[in-house]
Specification:
The chain is α/β, with parallel strands linked by helices and about 325 residues long. It contains 13 helices and twelve strands. The strands form two sheets. It has a seven-stranded parallel sheet with strand order 8-7-6-9-10-11-12, sandwiched between helices. The chain has a five-stranded parallel sheet with strand order 2-1-3-4-5. Helix 7 links the parallel strand 7 and strand 8. Helix 4 packs across helix 6. The radius of gyration is 23 Å and the shape is elongated. It starts with a strand and ends in a 9-residue tail after the last helix.
Amino acid sequence: MKIAFFEIEDWEKEIISNSFKKYKLLLFKEPLNNKNVKQIKDIEVLVVFIYSSITKEIIDNLPALKFIVTMSTGYDHIDVRHCNKKRIKIANVPRYGENTVAEHTFALILALSRRLYPSIKRTHEQHSFETSHDLKGFELKGKTLGIIGCGNIGKHVARIGVGFEMNVIVFDRHSEKELAKSIGFGYVNFDTLLKQSDIITLHIPYNKETHHLFNENTINKMKKGAIIINTSRGGIIDTHALVKGLKNKKISAAGLDVLEDECEIKEEKAVLSHIYKKSCNIQTLLEDHILIKMDNVIITPHNAFNSNETLHRILDTTLENITSFIKRKPINIIK
């Protein structure tokens, strides 16, 4: 069997080679396109990431192709209909970084609650070891944590919040009473969450319905002095409304791993790709961004997903998808 991998990072090559020693492997760093497809004419398994556009033309140029694996959750870069027509199965990586993002969420919360950034800045830059009232933080115990979206990531955030002895409330379109009971949180409606939460954290997808979900009207309904955390997508928060809320102290602080104006991101792993870095001038964005200049805002570079375990999990699931297909027991198949 011949297997072709595209958009492979250097660290992945040895792991892939050791996993499939019996098979003919073709490893490419660049995406698959109409030119290099000629080099893989007789492959049976194709592995790609989101920058490889698997069109009808590409598929028709691979007559032996039986299986496509995408190293992503999304698969809109693949012509699924044409694959179905040719009986080519497709598998994805349905999940990979739930606990990683949840942990980063609390890293932002703790950094704000314990004034870590100004504390570190003072000791490192001013060489001062004196504490003062402006470094005074607050405890998480007893505070109300409002989680918007209780999917795979939100569930982990809820568990961590309960561990800190916080009062955890959740807004989600679908309620799971048994889950709420086992973790120890309660469901509330959207406006109630806004009014009661000391800290609000977002864990919902970005789409037409969630675009600017947090706007001037929404922010005005929030508890005065609340903190907002966003590790989801930047467009969920209206930047101008957020700045206004921070300036008038309706919002006391914000922890952001995403920005509204950053390049469109379909898969978190894409931000590590040389293609993404080449096409998106994030440095210019940050130089001009008003939020970066605010003392009560912490910004991280879309890094919540970025752990050693997450990246290995993506690769491990990809390899498992291939192995299962070879054994004729395919998993994670897109219907």
